[in-house]
């Protein structure tokens, strides 16, 4: 029997069905609320609202747990590959060997971009932010790949999904190449997903490029850690854009735009810039004091999360990977010392303890990306590249859901009530 929640409003009592997930909090189904009572619910920022039903990713923010299709993120990061995780997110199960080979082959065959897309880049200033370029170029894909924009056809949806996953490294690497004035490199399909991306970013046509296996493995892990994250702001943006029937390339461009903000994916860039600004451990107390000061808009970037009220499990893996990469590459970066010290101080500080503010995925990712050689402006572009699989998997799930409707929130209106127009000469 369905559990019911009771709501008393204006003297009347209404029963609302309670739905149960496989794990996690129950949800109160309020879809009939407006019809029955004429009232809306009010929840700006969706702090207590489940916007959809999903079988992809689960987060327990109090315990610091993140599962993709049931598998813990640390196990996936340690034991699987980004291609496996992509398959898992899109198809629901880990691939068998032949399924993984076929999937990898398919993705590899979609890595090239339509040649004309290269001319788009030349329309941007050289100092354009890579995220500005990514928004534009990804949105423009819909003008080139008409045979995968019919969202009612599951095959076309999957082709579009494969194209997006495959082309993002090419698009991001070209954004980097354009910014440094070097020639674009075509993909090399004999390399792994991460190896190919590294070569397109750091290789030059004049010399052969050797992929460093340490960097390749770290890159793959970073991609896994960013692959999906439940109904975050950019994923919700993709779903909302997709709910109107917009084509997948346009929806992902919308997701990229949302991800860019410093409260979301832009935090990795902001976190590294902050660590550089702090510069040395002695200056940490000054920045901690600023973060705690209500009159100062400064926040510790890479700290805090809407859902995690415990250590972000991705940050744990990221910190370990940062240790490994810096050690194996022989890089000594004082920024890493500042990060570790800042974390230790913040974790003991009453303000951060009381508000349950812990390092998130963006706190250590910048340290690794910087050691690999990426400029800070590329950090969020890498996040977008990796999150594309989550976006397309969530988008596919939404389109396949028979209960799916156009997303159309309502509001609490506080503007003027109806009044008559006043002619210009009488105002
Ligand atoms: N530094 C200092 N104080 C903070 C911080 C921080 N990083 N984060 C939250 N707080 C305080 C905030 O001032 C508020 O205090 P009070 O209750 O006294 O007003 C309280 O903690 C709750 O913060 P909130 O802004 O209401 O919480 P939220 O759930 O709306 O925001 C957040 C979550 C991630 C936007 C926020 O923690 C933040 O701005 N963090 C820094 C940016 C960041 O690292 N973002 C990356 C998130 S993880 C990757 C991703 O998903 O993209």
Describe this structure in words.
The chain is mainly alpha-helical and 427 residues long. The chain folds into 3 domains: 47 residues, Single Sheet (Rubrerythrin, domain 2); 204 residues, Citrate Synthase, domain 1, CATH 1.10.580.10; 106 residues, Cytochrome P450-Terp, domain 2 (Cytochrome p450-Terp, domain 2, Orthogonal Bundle), CATH 1.10.230. It is built from 18 helices and 6 strands. The protein has a 3-stranded antiparallel β-sheet. It has a 3-stranded antiparallel β-sheet with strand order 4-5-6. A hairpin with a 7-residue loop joins strand 2 and strand 3. Helix 6 runs antiparallel to helix 7, helix 7 packs parallel to helix 8 and helix 9 runs antiparallel to helix 17. Carboxymethyl coenzyme *A (CMC) binds next to helix 17. The site of carboxymethyl coenzyme *A has 19 residues, from helix 17.
Bound molecules: carboxymethyl coenzyme *A
Count of the domains: 3
Low-confidence regions: none
Task: Give a quick account of the main beta sheet: strands, pairing sense, barrel closure.
Answer: 3 strands, antiparallel
Q: Roughly how many Å apart are the termini?
A: 62 Å
The rounded Rg comes to 23 Å
CATH level-4 homologous superfamily of the largest domain: Citrate Synthase, domain 1
CATH fold annotation of the largest domain: Citrate Synthase, domain 1
**In which order are the strands of the major sheet placed?**
1-2-3
Helix count? 18
- Name of the CATH architecture of the largest domain: Orthogonal Bundle
Note the run of SSEs as H and E.
EEEHEEEHHHHHHHHHHHHHHHHH
Mean pLDDT: 95
Strand content: 5-15%
The level 1 CATH classification of the largest domain is Mainly Alpha
